[in-house]
Amino acid sequence: MAKKVVQYNNISIRLACLSFAICETCCRYQVKLSAENEEIADWLIRLTHNQRNWGFGLCFLYLRNVKGFGWNHKNVYRIYRELELNLRIKPKKRLVREKPEALEVPEEINQVWSMDFMHDQLSNGRSYRLFNVLDDYNREGLCIDVDFSLPSARVTRTLDQIIEWRGKPQTIRCDNGPEYISHHLQNWAKKRDIEISYIQPGNPQQNECLCGTL
């Protein structure tokens, strides 16, 4: 503490020692490196230079178990710290996520539909999928199609069946799954003059009206 006061406040060592009631000799004392400490420092520098991903633990185990040195681990660690050989910890990169855009509230039926997949397993462990379609205006479930495989052709066939008795929607909202970004679905929507509205990547809550209802 006295050394820090001398360093940062530009006062004499004598005044700092009087303020903290410590011996001036103790404050001025500097550890003299012995031949053993110089050897430890030399080994640590060589190890960290050749093995850049080694920390203190691996260096000390190598010196103790492989080279057979009986040095005290506290002394080795003190020299390791004085040489500033500590591994630099890389800071975690924070992902910058875009703020979710506010969704438009439909004012009539068949204005906006939402569709999404759900997954589950049978008792024998085999997975199956559920294709769900919802009208966002009154939150009416229009279809739940269940099968082991639901490719884009099956999706468009199910949508055609709904349109036959329900009518055509203006917009269909969905995520960025492979079935929804396929050319087959895009061509199908273009022929029927239906807009495919994709949610923002990393914002599944924009389609939570579907997942939270079924």
Automatic annotation (TrEMBL):
The record's listing under PROSITE patterns reads: INTEGRASE
Task: Cite the Pfam families for this sequence.
Answer: rve (PF00665)
Q: Where is the Integrase catalytic domain?
A: 102-214
Signal peptide span per the entry? Answer: none
Q: Which domain of life is it from?
A: Bacteria
Residues crossing the lipid bilayer are none
Task: Tell me the InterPro entries matching this sequence.
Answer: Integrase_cat-core, RNaseH-like_sf, RNaseH_sf
UniProt-recorded name of the protein: Putative transposase
Which molecular function terms from Gene Ontology are attached?
A: nucleic acid binding
- Matching SUPFAM superfamilies: Ribonuclease H-like
Give GO terms for biological process.
DNA integration
